[in-house]
Amino acid sequence: MKRNEGQSLTPMMQQYRELKEQHKEAILFFRLGDFYEMFFEDAIVASQELGLVLTSRESGENAPPMCGVPYHAADGYIARLVAKGYKVAICEQMEDPRLAKGLVRREVVRIITPGTITDDKVLPEKGNNFLAAVVPQGECYGLAWADVSTGEFHVKYCASFLELADELARLNPAECLLPSYWLGKTDIVKRLQTWYSGVFTPWDEGLEPDVGLQLLRERFGSQWQLEAKGEALAACSLLLSYLLATQKNTLPHLKPPSLVEDIAYMALDQATRRNLELFLAGREAGRRGSLLWVLDRTATAMGGRTLKRWLERPLVKLEAIRERQEAVKELVDNFILRQKVEGFLKKVKDLERLAGRVAYGTAGGRELQALRHSLEVVTPLKEALKEAKAPLLKDVTKELDAIPEITDLIARALVEEPPAGVKEGGLIRPGYHPEVDRLREAITHGREWIAELENEERERTGIKSLKVGFNRVFGYYIEVTRPNLSLVPADYERKQTLANAERFITPRLKELEQQVLGAEERLVELEYELFQELRSQVLAVLPRIQATAKALGVLDALYSLASVAAEYNYTCPVVDEGEVIEIRQGRHPMLERVGEGGNFVPNDTFLDCGRQRLHIITGPNMAGKSTYIRQVALIVLLAQVGSFVPASWARIGLVDGIFTRVGAADDLFAGQSTFMVEMREVAYILSRATRRSLIILDEVGRGTSTTDGLSIARAVVEYIHDRIGARTLFATHYHELVELEQYLPGVKNYSVAVREQGKDILFLHTIIPGGTDKSYGIHVARLAGLPEDLIRRAEELLKGIYQEGEKGSGKKVQEGLQEDYRILLRAQGEVLEPEPVTRSPEEQPPKSRRTAIEAEVLKELENYNLFNKTPLEAMQAIFNWQKKLAARKKVVRDEQQLRWWG
Ligand code: ADP
Q1: Where does ATP bind (predicted)?
Q2: What is the pTM of this model?
Q3: Which of these CATH numbers, 3.40.30.10, 3.30.450.40, 3.30.420.110, 3.30.70.260, describes 131-260?
Q4: Residue-averaged pLDDT of the chain
Q5: Cβ atoms of 616 and 701 closer than 8 Å
Q6: Which of 193, 325, 371, 625 has a 20 to 30 Å separation from 433 between CA atoms?
Q7: Helix axes 365-376, 542-568, angle to 10 degrees
Q8: Measured between alpha carbons, how far is 271 from 268 in angstroms, rounded to an integer?
Q9: What number is the average pLDDT over the span 503-518?
């Protein structure tokens, strides 16, 4: 801009400079007639980013660079800039340029940023676009987030940096506000960026406690309050002040911030969400193959967002889980109701975002009609739900509000298929407003009279080809072709000469024109006024629309879970506060859907916090270990979401969190030491998990050399077993770990059954008790098609190693391991010797699994409190004991089989 300093600017460029000065952080879209123009640096950036041609309004090499986009196509360009992380300030003409005296008044009406975009075309249909704000206070953080397209607003208090980072990774906000002093600390921002890749924006307004509280009270009412610490409140006011400043709108659809409390939800960190492929799956990290992909049958965008939120935050309160379960169960059992619900939901549009557009004043006739059609579904839907018995379905029904006064009004006021724009007329239905009807009549008549006038003039002049036409510049005219000009009467006034015709007007024609054009202009104005009135009436019921949208979202998510459960033959798990996780014929929800179908081998699981608390699952690569342990975690997660589960029967003793870690070789982070990542995440699990948690570890220790890896794996098992006591599945190809069963009372060995047929092996994918002592690596290599010579050489080498081993080095490895473990603990700053574990007699390794089962059943029977059980529960318990006793036989069979396979 230096070039122009000191020179006199045109008044318009002066105006531009002033506006730009107030919005330095944004690219200014400056409205000039039918274009948005950008100047100076903005023009250079935009021309590069959008591939626009740089021009100039003036000539000469120092003329300011500029570029522009037509106003009707601006949305796409804005979206592209915002997607690249830019902010765009929209400057409009605030008065009609034709009527303006002197310079047209212009104002910035909105600043669009990555976190505040509302354009339907770029927003994820069933997802959210969040703006977040973080306010640190010592080691703690307030985190607020909102989606301006739907109006939701939440806040959370994070007790550590890790918790904050994890929450940011979960929400993945498009933009995150930070106080500028904090954003200045580059190391913090760098750390955050390893978790979250969005845009950071410095912002300080609303940080002061008094100012912030006042701002929130002004917006949400003087009664409004939040039971949260100061930094959470500050995050809310920081976010709100940014929204008000950029949106230049009171945001009537924004809900008061609701507090998200961790105690209501299961701990589910980012690594776990990724490992379990909740939302993205496979190497390409696409939706296909993910849990959401299997479960999402939602018919509406609200339902899609609700379901995603449920999967992100499974519940831990029994009552809340059972409430959802009952509703899902009713929809599973009542096929007719489910069908009806589906039929109605399919007609519902994105009410949340429609409400947002009403709030922003960007809803047109089409949006209001979409809103009406969506709300018109509510009455028959409520009727269908009348018979529902599940409390949650009753709640939903109660919340649904058809708002008939609004749907009737829209139906009466608007034509069935309104035009896209709202300022060109054609919106208002005949019969709604007398003046609209009168004007329309005047226009129609005027046009008829003009048509009549054409006939009269043809007769009067005898010119057969005479015709009346219209254009924007001259209005109505009479056109006479050149050969007929001699017949033109004296009262014709010449207006325009064309190559082979002349155009005239007459006083009578002008009179009629006045009537038609005046009426047209007035009509367009009046229709727009009436439309705005209508829109403000819709605005007045916004909270009711939002409540209905929310209820529809819940209903849709329940419907989705029910229809998946019914179609894929899921069962309703028994969820209780016990410590047992028992699954019969469990399946992996995604794998059973992506495979050829029918090939999936189901598996049973029994975990408790006692002697079956830590399963070591061994077996060759590709046998199905990872699939199995993830399947258990997914079933537990689904049960606590309130969903049915892929199993023939399941009992889930509530878990407070699921923690997973997959050994480093599976995922290749570029640039970071994979082993370092692996160990950091294991450390995180060890610090967070409790006795109530479920831990899933897959090949931990694989990222380093064999002896290191083995010792770390073993130390991790011991630590979890002795110190945490969490229910744990530990899959490993280190078959050396099976001996832990002898030392640790809560450890049980399992393996994936494999059948050897000559030189080949067959993976049975069945989990059986007992460990394996073979890794079958060479068999797998053969399966993979390596040359036979190479395989033979490997077998020779292996034989050599085993013979070595027999000469005594095996014992050395054993001693080395114990030493490694001590070193590891020392390095962690832990006590040198593991705490002695007190083992009750019955925790001693049982002589055989058979007696173990018997002892267990007896103990359960002994402790069974008959008096707080229903007859049905008691029957179930007896049934379970019988089942267990029956399983004794299977154990014996398995033992025989094992001997046979071994
Ligand atoms: P591992 O962890 O033991 O190396 P995976 O769990 O990755 O093995 O399983 C390897 C492959 O075996 C999977 O991709 C899947 O195709 C198949 N598989 C695993 N479990 C089952 C099962 N229960 N039923 C059918 N196929 C399975």
Answers
A1: 619-626
A2: 0.79
A3: 3.30.420.110
A4: 86
A5: no
A6: 371
A7: 60
A8: 8
A9: 89
